[in-house]
Amino acid sequence: MQKNEVILEAFDYSQDHFRQIDFSSIDKLHALKNPSTTSWINIDGLQDKELLRCIYELFELHPLLLEEIQDVSQRPKFEEFDEYIYITVKMLSCDPVTDKILTEHLSIVVGKYYLITFQEGLAGDVFNPIRERMSRPKSKLRMNGTDYLTYAILDVIIDNYISIIERFGERIELVERKFRGNQTDNILDDIYEYKMEINFLRKTIRPVRELAVLLEKSESEIIDDKTVPYLKSLVDHMAHATEAIETYQIMLNDQLYIYQTRISNKLNDILRVLTVFSVVFIPLTFIAGVYGTNFDYLPELHFKYSYGIFWGILIVTAASMLYYFRRKGWL
């Protein structure tokens, strides 16, 4: 659910300095353009156009970025400018009521001494571990710059991807257990629902792997050489996430194939039984048709035991055919 108000928070820190800034006035943003500290400005909500314009003017951002940041339909991307880096990704979460996947657009502007995040404005985010680590004096966040903060933000987002993938993976594995227990009620609905969710995850997450590769290979002066190994780990994490998605896609396709095969086999069993009964009754119908004809002169018509013999022929014929089908393995 989208919030009605814009929440603006900022953290200014260095190795021996940390403060969380209360924004009662937009003028306090000017104090964050300090090259001796690192500043993280988080704007949660995009409906305040005047606030966005002030931030753009203060940090001298490209005018086209204003439109791009407000366009929440963009796919993940990575762009380099002279003074900053621009990144867009999707944050994912699960609705606590419907358990559906929710997406929130996130734009990140990374300068040499500042980092600005623009959230779409949905309730909650995944940044609490970063806020907590930032308050600790000896944390790596406090001892590094905006490039490491960028890594930390993308890392928690990707970790949340993996957590959601594993959550759906457990449900997909539960479908397999239902197969083993022959619990097929509503199983087709579950398979199709999980296929839609996994396909959505694949569409959302796969471009982030390309973004991580571009970030790792970037030659921007903003990214310090000592941060590059951490960025490489993002690529590895994204490879793990995409491989997990592909694995679960294969599992769902296999489950759908197994379900269709079981239904087909069940239908074949029914048709086989019906076919056997049809084949058995064909000769019986022939015999009954011959002896049910309306001719006055049938050789056995006035024989005393004709009726019993007639039923005997029917029973022996049916039993013989059933025995033959059983020997052939058709029953």
Largest sheet: 7 strands, mixed
What is the number of beta strands? Answer: 7
Element-level helix/strand string: EEEHHEEEEHHHHHH
Q: Helix segment count?
A: 8
Please give the order of strands in the largest beta sheet.
Answer: 2-1-3-7-6-5-4
Unreliable runs = none
The percent of residues in helical segments reads 40-55%
- What structural category arises from helix and sheet content? alpha+beta
How far apart the termini lie comes to: 59 Å
Q: Report the average pLDDT across residues.
A: 83
Rg: 35 Å
| SS strand fraction | 15-25%
Envelope shape: rod-shaped
List the SSEs and their pairings.
Blueprint lengths: L6 E8 L2 E5 L16 E7 L4 H10 L4 H8 L6 E4 L3 E11 L6 E11 L2 E6 L8 H7 L5 H4 L2 H35 L6 H31 L10 H64 L14 H23 L3
Parallel strand pairs: 3-7
Antiparallel strand pairs: 1-2, 1-3, 4-5, 5-6, 6-7
Helix pairs in contact: 5-6, 5-7, 6-7, 7-8
Notes on the protein architecture:
The model has no long low-confidence stretch (mean pLDDT 83). 55% of the residues lie in helices and 16% in strands. By secondary structure, the chain is an alpha+beta fold.
Quickly list its features.
331 residues, alpha+beta, seven-stranded mixed beta sheet, 55% helix
Quick structural gist:
The chain is 55% helix and 16% strand. With 331 residues, it is α+β, with helices and mostly antiparallel strands.
